[in-house]
Amino acid sequence: GEPTLDNRVFTLAKNYPDMMFFMFTNSSLITGEYAKKLSNFGNLVPLLSIDGSNEQILDYFKGKNSYKIIMKAIEHLNKNNVSWGFISMVTEKNAKDVLDSKFIKKMKRKGAFIARFLEYVPAGPKARKDLILSGETYYLLEKRKKEIIESGEIYIQDTSQKKCTGLLSFDVLGNIKNCIFFHYSKYNVNDGDIDKLTKDTIKDWVSFNCDGECPIYSNPISFKNYLEECGWKHTMACKEEYLNNLEVANQMKYNYRRFLGIKNR
Question: How do beta strands 169-170 and 115-119 pair?
């Protein structure tokens, strides 16, 4: 969910001052007052969701006035000396824009010190097939991430792996998830020893046999079926097309295999 709606983030930051907490946020609730509160916590860093370099692109993805809202949030953060970064959802329509050096330089000039780029996954009930990464665009994403890391254009975490181990997270109900786009869980934090439960979660995730790094893009429906056999359950009220619609799933599979073919040339 939206972390700025949950005041427990401040309790976490206060209780664990030796840990860094990154909040993926849409920026809409970052007022001057909220930014001032954030300034008391050097270990609580907002990563603003910025999916385009200009008002037209950003409002297309986020809705009308999103660009102005985000720019105002940046103004509040900078005024209160709060460190911040950005996270961009890379899609077939905005990849060239957000992966361009000009966009990164623009964000740095505005004050960003860290970035993250995530490939679009058509989660939710209404899949946008036109946003699914083509093989060529997926390759561009991976290529640019490597270039940015090597050149130091801006700091981004090197997340490349031979096989994805997931991105462990906990939803607001305490369900232990292993990808922010994959709304399935086997355990809840109340089920016992969290260390054991998280290790078992990752063990299930990596035991699926898939081509390439990402099991979701590689074969979404088979991956979902496999984890259901392992006892995982869907945590959303609605069905998700990319996990049930063969047309959407096959498009992801085909595009990902094309990416692997380009990568292995």
Answer: unpaired
Under DSSP, is residue 219 helix (H, G, I), strand (E, B) or coil? coil
Helix (H) or strand (E) holding 48: strand 44-49
Helix (H, G, I), strand (E, B) or coil at 168: coil
- Per DSSP, helices labelled H in the chain are 8-15, 32-38, 55-62, 66-79, 95-98, 101-110, 135-151, 194-206, 215-218, 220-229, 246-263
Cα–Cα distance, 42 to 81 (Å, whole number):
10
Q: What is the pLDDT of residues 117-149, one digit of tens each?
A: 999 999 988 888 999 999 999 999 999 999 999
What is the average pLDDT across 212-223?
Answer: 95
- Among candidate residues 247, 176, 165, 180, the one with its CA nearest the CA of residue 214: 165
CB 136 within 8 A of CB 107: no
Distance (Å, rounded) from C-alpha 211 to C-alpha 219? 8
